[in-house]
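Shift notes (night). Ran DUF3139 domain-containing protein while the centrifuge was going.
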Amino acid sequence: MDHSRLVVEKKIRWVAAAMITLCLCMTLIPISLFGYYKYNVGVLKDETYTHLSTEGYSEDDIKNVQVVMKKIPLLSTLVEFTDEQGVIYWYDKKQGEIVQIGIYESPGIPEEQHFKHLE
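Came back to this:
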C-alpha cells in the first residue's frame, strides 16, 4: 500500500511542477516579448533623433517622432517637423543606419509643394 501511495504522491508533485512551469512560461514569455518590443522602440526612436541631429535638426525643429510596427522591417519611424504641418517623413533602419525612405502627405497639400526636409 505504501508503494502505490508514493507513486501517486510523485505523480501529483510532477503534475504540480508541470502546472507551475506552464503558468510561469505563459506569464513570462509575453512579458519578455513586450519588454523586448518596448526596448527596440526606444532604441529606434533614440537612433532616429541622433540621425536627425547629425542632419542639423534640433529638438525644437521636430514636432513628433513615432515608432510604428509594420511587416518588414518590423519597426519604422514617422517624423513630423514643426515647420511643415501635415507632412510626415518615414525613416527605416537599413544596414545599421537610419535612412529616409518616404513621405506621407495629408490631403489638401498642393502637389507643387517643395518638401523642406527631403534627404
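The chain has a mean pLDDT of 86. Strands lie at 62-69, 75-81, 87-94, 97-105.
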